[in-house]
Structure formats: structure tokens, C-alpha cells
Backbone:
């Protein structure tokens, strides 16, 4: 399977890591949309949020359990936005489940 985020997760492609353990990886987004913009991924290949289920959802809980630690490490103290784009219509361009963690500016709502 040809997946850029799997290649990043297994070290084939070097990246600027923010946090890593045996299950997840956080690294800087190549096209930042905010002063702080990182991606948090499960190392296991899950295509998109449609494929999250009772068997694999522990890694999603683990990502959210680590987000406060990652935010503190990045010095984010005034809030952040977490985004998951699921499917082309929502703007998903990489077919490996990922959460955008963005901070450092005000965000509008509703999102466009
Ligand atoms: P999405 O559009 O939600 O699928 O977000 C994909 C994000 O991934 C987008 O903000 C750009 C980023 N991205 C794509 N390829 C790479 C890469 O090779 N390295 C890094 N660090 N980010 C990437």
C-alpha cells in the first residue's frame, strides 16, 4: 500500500516530530494553516473516520488522551482547534486518518 503517512510513521520518510510513542505520531503539517499546525496520526493504517470501530477506536482515545500533553509541549495556552476531514467533500486529501491540531490565531465558526 502506498501511503505517505504510513511511510512517515515507520520512518521511511523523515519528518519534524513533536510526539511519538508505539501507537501514534504527531508531526508538523507541510502546509500550515495556523502559526501552530501539527498532524496527529495512528501508526496503524486507518483510512478515514468511517473506518473507526469498537476494535480500533482505542487508538483514537489514546490520541485525545495525549493532546493536552502535546499542546503543553508546544506552548499552546490559549486554545486550539482539532479538525478531522473525512472524505473528499470534507477536504480529506491524505487517505490515512489524521487529526489537525491548530493554534496561535483566532478561528471562525462555522468553519468554511
Ligand atoms: P487533509 O486535507 O485533512 O487530508 O490534510 C492533509 C494534510 O497533510 C495537509 O494539511 C497537508 C499535509 N501533508 C500532506 N503531505 C504531507 C507530508 O508529506 N508531510 C507533512 N508533514 N504533511 C503533509
Residues:
Amino acid at each position: 500500500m502506498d501511503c505517505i503517512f504510513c511511510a512517515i510513521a515507520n520512518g521511511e520518510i523523515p519528518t519534524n516530530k513533536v510526539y511519538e510513542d508505539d501507537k501514534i505520531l504527531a508531526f508538523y503539517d507541510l502546509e500550515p494553516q495556523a502559526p501552530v499546525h501539527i498532524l496527529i496520526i495512528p501508526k496503524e493504517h486507518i483510512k478515514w473516520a468511517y473506518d473507526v470501530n469498537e476494535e480500533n477506536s482505542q487508538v483514537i482515545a489514546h490520541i485525545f488522551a495525549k493532546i493536552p500533553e502535546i499542546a503543553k509541549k508546544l506552548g499552546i495556552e490559549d486554545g486550539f482547534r482539532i479538525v478531522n476531514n473525512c472524505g473528499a467533500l470534507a477536504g480529506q486529501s491524505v487517505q490515512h486518518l489524521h487529526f489537525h491540531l491548530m493554534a496561535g490565531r483566532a478561528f471562525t465558526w462555522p468553519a468554511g
About this structure: The longest strand covers residues 36-42. The beta strands are 17-20, 24-28, 36-42, 81-83, 99-103. Helices lie at 4-9, 58-73. The two ends are 32 Å apart (CA to CA).
